[in-house]
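Chapter review: from sequence to fold.
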Amino acid sequence: ITFLQLGETSMTNRRDFLRLGALGAAGAALSGAAPAAAQAVKHQFKLKYAPHTSLFSNIPDEIDRLNEYAAHGFTAFENNGMLSWPQARVEALKKRMDELKMEMGVFVANPSGWRTAGMVDPAQRPAFLAEVKKSVPYHKIVGNSICTVITGPEIPGQYRGHQRVNVIESLKRAADVVSVVPSLTLVVEPLNPWVDHAGYFLNRSEEAYEIMKAVGSPQVKILFDIYHQQITEGNLINNIRACYDEIGSFQLGDAPGRHEPYTGEINYRNVFKAIHQLGFKGIVGMEFSPSVKADPEGSFKVVAAMAEADKFEV
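The token string follows.
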């Protein structure tokens, strides 16, 4: 695999970024573990970046963390594990979203897809469809527009084309399940097999694109995770442009390391500019762990990195 480095930030911008990170860390150290919304800088982001609910983990309740995201200028967030929440807690989440005028990106519709609810094996299809069906009432409460589905592992010793047909059939049936809620789109995520998900079936963007065309539903699209696709195939901007009409959502993380921008090789300012030029209005999920583990210091560094990467010219 050849990794494509799309460019480098100027030394001036790097120095400015490091200065911002140091200032954020210093402010966090002064404040201790208390919520930091009072000292937040509210950014006017050009894209709809969505922190995952692990950001600002120094705030005990995930719902309360939304206040922090909004204070920094984020208008969306993501919560992969929401399907495990009691519905009463989801209703409380929705109430806070409405108060803050925030929207939610993905939760994972088939979290058992790694084991018993994948799309590749027809024997697992009933469990897959049952989990997709379970996601519908959660979507109705929270009002999000996208929901992740994962293909699960490939089947050793079987032709890939046959497995691809099984995935297409599973997604066609899933589209029927969510047709009762036209506001919900299932986004299928390719994942890299080299670092994080050995044996996972769907890895490359062009195969995901082929599958979406075969499914032929406006409610089934690609979740293009920039971190995973940099590892698997590189050539990010060209591949995003080539697949754009079937992309329903993006996620990000720098590579290597899967941390915030400016910790690896991806020129996120250029990638975000390309996405913005395509007219994308959806969610760009921040699915990575901060490079600094302590909070709120690590989360301040994340916010500074996202603000820096968003400084592209329009």
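Two observations follow directly from the output. The chain has ten helices and eight strands. Confidence is low (pLDDT under 50) at residues 1-34.
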